[in-house]
Specification:
6 helices, mainly alpha, 132 residues
């Protein structure tokens, strides 16, 4: 379980870094990617299941990370919000996205820096289990 959750946590960190890099070097493509969130019921449920996977992996892997309490709480935050959104009709999420996504696209450089920073923090936290 440790190995599997560790792989998911590292993949999550790398995904965030990749998203941040994409937003900096290909802002139009990143904007299109963000606009696909909650664009359909399938996209909504896929997004929430992936968030649930990442959050569960953080909770499970946190004991082997630097600052385990921080990552455990962050993982639970992701799990709880993902479950909340799974129980919410996707059209409500879609309506929220109509407001939030243009805001993220408008401040895409700030969004990119946040994604890069969060990805780096996750990878640094996971480095405790990876590095001797």
């Amino acid at each position: 379980m440790k190995l599997l959750s560790g792989v998911v946590v590292v993949a999550f960190g790398l995904f965030l870094i990749g998203l941040g890099v994409l937003a900096l070097i290909k802002p139009l493509r990143a904007g299109l990617f963000l606009q696909s969130f909650a664009s359909s019921a399938r996209a909504h449920y896929t997004e929430q299941l992936l968030r649930l996977l990442a959050g569960t992996a953080l909770v499970t892997f946190a004991p082997w990370m630097w600052f385990p309490d921080l990552f455990r709480y962050f993982g639970w935050l992701i799990v709880v919000t993902a479950v909340g959104l799974l129980l919410t009709p996707w059209r409500w999420h879609h309506e929220f996205g109509k407001w939030a996504i243009p805001l993220a696209v408008r401040y895409l450089k700030l969004f990119a820096l946040g994604a890069l920073a969060l990805g780096a923090v996750i990878l640094c936290g996971a480095s405790r289990a990876i590095l001797p």
